[in-house]
Each structure stands twice: as structure tokens, then as C-alpha cells.
Q: What sequence folds into this?
């Protein structure tokens, strides 16, 4: 099932976050929602598929930091960080 994109062009990047959900990396499945930000509980890299379909491994994410990236999938292969949270 495709990730639901709740982002509204009328919203600003400083608008409050509305939802939070745990992210389990998966080789093929998209997230329930496209994120506005992610956070990790244990440092490491996260392989993501961005909302536009491009992929990247985001290295060295640190725990407790909100990273403002809009992703629709977190891929198992390149992900070493754990306790990943998505924000919408």
C-alpha cells in the first residue's frame, strides 16, 4: 500500500507535527505515512526512499535529533540505526 502523504502545501515547515509512529525498516513495504521528520534512538545510518522516489543512505544520524526529511520508505539493507520514529 502506498504511503499516505498528509503534507499540505498550505502548511509551513514550522507547523506543529501531528502524528508520530514507529518505523520498522523493510526491503519493499512503504511506510503508513510520508514523514515530515525522522528521529533515531540508537545512532547509525538510515537508507531511505524519499517522497519523490530517490534513494539515499543518510549516514551517522544521532539519537534524539529530528531530521526534517520526507521519506516514504526506510529500507532494511542500508539501515544500521534502530528505534526509528517517524513524524508527520
A:
Amino acid at each position: 500500500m502506498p504511503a499516505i502523504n498528509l503534507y499540505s502545501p498550505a502548511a509551513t515547515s514550522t507547523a506543529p507535527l501531528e502524528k508520530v509512529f514507529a518505523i520498522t525498516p523493510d526491503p519493499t513495504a512503504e511506510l503508513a505515512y510520508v514523514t515530515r521528520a525522522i528521529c533515531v534512538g540508537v545512532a547509525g545510518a538510515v537508507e531511505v526512499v524519499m517522497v519523490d522516489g530517490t534513494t539515499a543512505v543518510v549516514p551517522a544520524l544521532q539519537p534524539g535529533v529530528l531530521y526534517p526529511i520526507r521519506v516514504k520508505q526506510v529500507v532494511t539493507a542500508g539501515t544500521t540505526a534502530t528505534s526509528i520514529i517517524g513524524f508527520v
